[in-house]
Here is the input.
Amino acid sequence: MMKKLVIKDIAEQLQVSKSTISFVLNGKARQHGISIKLENKILKYVEKVGYQPSRIAVGLSTGKSKTIGMLVEDISDPFFSSIARVVERSALSSGYRVIYGSTENDTVQAIDLLQAFRNHNVDGYIIAPPPGTENYIRELVADGFPVVVFDRDVPGLDCDKVLIDNFNGALQAVEHLVDRQFKNIAMVTLLSKQNQMEERANGYLKALNDSGLVQRIKQIPYDLEKSKCVEQIRRFLAGQKAIDAVFFSTNYLALGGIEAIRQLGLQVARDIGIVVFDDNTNFELFSPPISAVAQPVKQIGEQVTEIMLSRLQSNTPAAFQRIVLKTNFIARESTLSQPLKANVF
Amino acid sequence: MMKKLVIKDIAEQLQVSKSTISFVLNGKARQHGISIKLENKILKYVEKVGYQPSRIAVGLSTGKSKTIGMLVEDISDPFFSSIARVVERSALSSGYRVIYGSTENDTVQAIDLLQAFRNHNVDGYIIAPPPGTENYIRELVADGFPVVVFDRDVPGLDCDKVLIDNFNGALQAVEHLVDRQFKNIAMVTLLSKQNQMEERANGYLKALNDSGLVQRIKQIPYDLEKSKCVEQIRRFLAGQKAIDAVFFSTNYLALGGIEAIRQLGLQVARDIGIVVFDDNTNFELFSPPISAVAQPVKQIGEQVTEIMLSRLQSNTPAAFQRIVLKTNFIARESTLSQPLKANVF
DNA sequence: GTGAAAGCGCTAACAG
DNA sequence: CTGTTAGCGCTTTCAC
Here is the structure.
């Protein structure tokens, strides 16, 4: 077990004091009038022996951990993991690490994680906020931490936000169904008060209102296991034979819905049109390819990190930003209204 | 800005010393003969004011950070993010956090991350090792850190390992193609010396050898952008008209391959059979559904964490484990050998 | 039974 | 220009 080098070792080897090393390493040689010669000597030696300061000691001493805490709903969800990836990469290039936590949309878990982050002295928080976390987040903001909320808005919470235009994304998707001559358009969504789901529902309602069609919304509880979810959708569709198209508010629900449609012996597109909010699952390779509302994952990640890093690096408290990114609707074959020709790729 | 409570505050409020608090909080009240009464009083007060020790200070003082560093190839890859999720969950229940890093299979990035982990004083390492990291990992092991390698073996590296049976997984998949009467079976894989890819290739070669068929392997460079990758596969297929089936060694390659097949105006199953190693992408919903070798993601995650936690919690250095998990072959319609009927779900 | 004090590895006043 | 020193918040030895 090779003993890890510490600053004291370096100081002894080089016959200088710890602080001199520290100054040099933190680029403060100049303001402390350390000779270029000594500086180079130190730099060279440190490089040679591969010394790296213990982040944990630096953290204790400075109060800064150079890490960002990121709270997502589920890191195994492609939507979140893609964003996480973008954040990780850009943060790293500014010397920040990211620690993640999956909330499963649960208040208690989320708050536990946020407390854990806090005990780890994270410098900033990137949060897809589960319900019930408003107050804790507000505290974080009040205590002066940079907080960037994304994916879902929390009305009344004052901090930086990177959101997408759920209302118009949904509106556009449902209008597309209307354009394609579907007459009985249902929506399958989560049983949730979360802002982004409500906005998607509002978009749906608006589109149907505008065209005078009947509205039917089926809400599925959040933590239902997959098979139950499929069953609920199947029952819903079976009970409402008139439905000729469905707007799914999430990717996950759509996967369950497609399964349900299969179980009913129906075929997507030929028997029922479908369109999905969120395009992260190879929908273009499905049979038929599924029309979807694509969220700008990369942009979300970049914006989030950009705001976070700028807060972290400047201490001038700029006004909070609220960025709303546009979605991108992609029409594919799942929303053709007439019987579809054999479509095997 | 509400000042965070520290142990000193508690001590002052309660008129006892810091160490007493510390003992109680760490369940060492008994061995230090602290009265139950005092203990309860402290516990109650701590609970009431919501005091939580600074992990970073605890870390500095104990040398333990209660965090595990996890190195994956790409956290946005469903295979890795699913495993990460499992690890996160089980680690958390034992009080460990996980910090991730994506290596992009790059030696330098991987080592940088590992060093960063080390500076963060992580207590253990879970690693999907990129090429060229053997020595660094070996150092970690030599320095007494628990290290669990997964997904790919590094022959000659002595540490805990959780692997899957790539050879037999591939063998089975290709034998399936042979059974289905395909005669010109190609393999598309990564240009890589990594053990798991070689094993998959060996499985392919064995299956073809056993049945006396001609072997053709196309290797694609790792970091090619998607469109180039598609192009290379397209050219390969176009140049070898006789090919009637393809075994893709990764999920990602298969997605490119399906695109390439489309571009050539061919149809999967009808014109060309395909089977894929790794089943993480809703292949059952594709058109036609794609036959695949499923990796036991959940088991991998659980095994990895179990080994890690047992190392972390016991100091008796048990012998290294090498666990090899079986894959699960799923035959779907992409490997029917005769022309397929119209298949729209 | 309890508390003072040293120390984990680093930073940053401050003194010289 | 450089070094001494006092913390950061906690753990743990050892003396009372």
